[in-house]
Every structure is written in structure tokens, then in C-alpha cells.
Amino acid sequence: MGTLFRNGTLVTASDMFQADLLVEGETIALIVRNLPSAGHEVVDCTGKYLMPGGIDVHTHLDLPFGGTYSNDDFETGHIAAACGGTTMHIDFVIQPIGGTFFDGLRTWRKKAGKACVDYGFHLAVTDLRPELMADIPKLVDEGVTSLKLFMAYKNVFMVDDDTLYRTMQVAAEHGMIVMVHAENGDVEALLTPKLLAEGKTDPVYHASSRPPEIEGEATNRAVVMAGMTGCRLYVVHMTCEESIQALARGRALGYPVMGETCTQYFHVTVDEHLGAPGFEGAKFVCSPPVRTPHDHEVLWSAVRDGTLAVVSTDHCSFWYDGGHGPWQEWAASHPDGDWHLFEQTPGNRRPGKELGKGNFAKIPNGLPGIEDRMMVGWHLGVNSGRISPSRFVELHCTNPAKIFGMYPQKGTLAIGAEADIVVWDPRKEHTLSAQTHHMHVDYNIYEGMRVTGAPEQVYLRGRRVVEGGDWIGEKGKGRFVHRTPHGAIL
């Protein structure tokens, strides 16, 4: 007995067509018209779209950063993801300073023990000592085929050009992909203290400390290195015209370079949101910063013409109103502690955005969005006519799988693929709000946005985990996805 999805419209990266889809076990067994229903559980999809489960390749769950930890972990973040139609994500393992890549992997594997959807890992290189160079290709055997390097966050995560170039050389040799956070960290480290010394401490000045020029410069530098080394490059969370122009130049020269943007960069603005009265703008502090309506249109153009290949979230949620309870004492006695244990005591909250009151540079960088990505992307993109349903699937499901070495196991509706399926109701209306979302955070960056188009049911490897927008799955059933090298260049 299988699960038969009847009367739906299948949406893939290339087609939209009417068909029945049969799932047996964890995989898609048949896609045909008018399949007999005898012996199968039938899901009536009349008026609905069937799409592959979303893949968010840029998340930070349970991340130590900015004097605290991001709120969502591999349980709350996964449940939120699933409720928004995302059935897999790739999180960033952070190499500890002075430690090895495998030290980081052990830590993140422990974090993932409660996983509710499928997941993979990128490895963020922070301390590339000579003796660790030989460990880079060993990561491929672990199913980790992507490396992340920060060109920003000086004295925290930032690497120098020597490290970036040498990493690209090794990665190219072994079919790995290098991801970069492209901002000139040296310049940012000069701009920030100058702004603070001038009394410019409010959240809006975060954008002044990281202007689009330094994103464009860093993007160009990484693109040139990728061209020199032949390394596949993936520029994360691109926000502005300057960086898009740099990427487009590299692509025109035939370099193996690709880019993503994130959902928030189509909607949130520096004036309206980051510049909100009082400390309200702290809710929207992320790096690179949110930009202008002009940049929104530049990004939409880049999505339409193929310059940008993926839309992710950079999900990294922090309390807006945090620091409740004796967290200093708890943190001192739990240096590697699980902050969810602290928050099990009623009234307790780990520190959050309020750490940066009076100093924008101390606001933990990051926004929540893993649950809202596909609904906002559909509403702003498909409903507006900017992109087609197939392009939506390509950006949110298929391209991530192809680039990061898990296609066609993931990211498509095809015979033999894993049955990660979203039953999408294009007429369903939903208001995005902190009052109703499943993310472990006290605000929503799209608060009050009324979207049309949302998941009705979500299946993870053939098991229904979401019904009517609510989680009904079994916790702890998420699975690590072992990815392969030599992914696509799109």
C-alpha cells in the first residue's frame, strides 16, 4: 500500500502538468495519469499544486554568536521549516578557533540529534593552520562538500586572502564548493568605531558601517580568485547592485561562480525597517544589511535572468526582548550549554538583540525566516508575476539540490526521488505573525503581511509531517544527507 496523490498539478523546475503521483515507502514510485487507487491511501489534491519539499541551504541553528546563541535549534527550527514547506536545510558547522574541522562536526552532530527534517552541513573555516590543509578533502568522505569562509567579522570569523585563495585551490582539486560571506571586513572595522565615536549608535547606522561598496568589492575579489583557481564559488546572501554586477562580470567571463539572495532582501528596507523609531530597528539587523527598494528590483532582475541561482534565508533568530532571568550566572557555569535548558525555567530567556542598546555593533546579527521563506517568495514572486511557479521551484528546491550535490535524491518530483512533497494551496491566505509562527522568537520580520499561497500538507520521505499548517510529525526522525562533490554550476 502506498500514498496516492490524485488530481493535483505537479510543479517542477521545468514543467507544470496534471498527473497522479504514487509514493511507496520513502520514494516516488510512479507519476502517471489516472492511476487506480485500489489499496492506496488517497490524498485528493484537486486545485492544489504538488511541489518538491523546499531546501534552505543557508541556516544558523543553535549558533554561538554576538555574546549569545541563536534561538532556534534542530527541533524548533526544523518544525518551523516544515510548517513553511521546507523539508531539508544545510546548516553551518563552525570550526572552533584552535580546533579542527572534525571538532566542529562533532559539536554539530550532537546538536542535530533532535532533528525533525533532513539536513546537511557546510564547514565554516575560521582557523586554517597549515596542518589542517590535508583535512579538507577528508570532509568529502563525511558527506560535507562545501566550505564557508568569512571575508567579514574581523577578529571573529574573518579569514585573510591567503587563506581564501589556498582553500579554493584545494577545494577545486577535490570538487568541493567554496562559499563566501562577501564584505570587506577590514574596511568595516574602520567605519564602525568612527560612527560610534560620532555618537551614531542607533541600529540604522549598522547599514552605514557596511555600505554596498564593501560588499561589491569583496564579491569581486572572491570572483577573481575563483576564476584564477577554477574553484566553484557560491556567494551567499547577496543584497545590492554592486555585488550583483561583480558576480555578473565573473559569469560573463565563464568563471564557475554562482550566488544566492535571501527572502528578506526582497522586502525589508534600511529606511522603513532598520531606521524604525527607538530600538525597533534592531529586529532587522543582519549582515550584509538590508538595502533599498532599488536593490530589491536589482535582485528580482538577477533572479529572472539567472544571475542568482538560489533563494535562502540565512535564518539566525535572536530574541528582541531577551536577557530575562539569571543568564550571566547560568552562562558562566555552562560554557557549552544548551540554552533551551535555561529557558525551560518559566520567565527565563537567553540574551538577544538588547545586547546592542547604545551600540549597534553589539546587536546580534541575524533574522528569523526559515518558516516564511516559501510563502513570502511565492507571494512576492509568483503572485506578482515576477517569476513563474517553475522558476519558484527552481530557486527554492531544485537548484539548491543540484549545486550542493544531492540531486535527484532531493529537490525534484521524479521516479526514484525521495518523497519530500509539499501540497501547496495557491489560494490559501495566511497572515504572517509572531503570534502564529512556529519559530522560537518573539517577532516576525514580515509581521502583518497577508500572503496568498501556503502549504496545506507537507511530507518528509513519504511521511506526513504537516497538516493544515501544524506540525504532526514525529520528532527526531530527521536524517543527515550525505552529499557528493562536483555539483552543478548553474
List keywords for this structure.
490 residues; alpha/beta; TIM Barrel; nine-stranded mixed sheet
Mean pLDDT: 96
Shape, please? globular
Cα-based radius of gyration, to the nearest Å: 22 Å
Termini separation: 38 Å
What is the architecture of the domain at 54-375 at the second tier of CATH?
A: Alpha-Beta Barrel
Task: Using the coordinates above, name the CATH class of the domain at 54-375.
Answer: Alpha Beta
**Structure annotation, total helices:** 14
Task: Produce a short descriptive summary.
The chain has 490 residues and is α/β, with parallel strands linked by helices.
Model description:
The chain has a domain of 322 residues: TIM Barrel (Alpha-Beta Barrel). Helix content is 28%, strand content 22%. The chain contains 14 helices and 19 strands. The strands form three sheets. Strands 1, 2, 3, 4, 5, 16, 17, 18 and 19 form a nine-stranded mixed β-sheet that branches. Helix 7 runs parallel beside helix 8. The radius of gyration is 22 Å and the shape is globular.
Describe the secondary structure blueprint for this structure:
Elements: E1 3-11, E2 16-24, E3 27-32, E4 41-44, E5 49-52, E6 54-59, E7 64-65, E8 68-69, H1 76-83, E9 86-94, H2 101-111, E10 118-124, H3 138-141, E11 146-150, H4 161-173, E12 177-181, H5 185-197, H6 205-209, H7 212-229, E13 232-235, H8 241-252, E14 257-262, H9 270-274, H10 293-305, E15 310-312, H11 327-333, H12 339-343, H13 373-382, H14 389-403, E16 421-431, E17 450-460, E18 463-467, E19 470-471
Parallel strand pairs: 1-4, 1-5, 6-9, 9-10, 10-11, 11-12, 12-13, 13-14, 14-15
Antiparallel strand pairs: 1-2, 2-3, 5-16, 7-8, 16-17, 17-18, 18-19
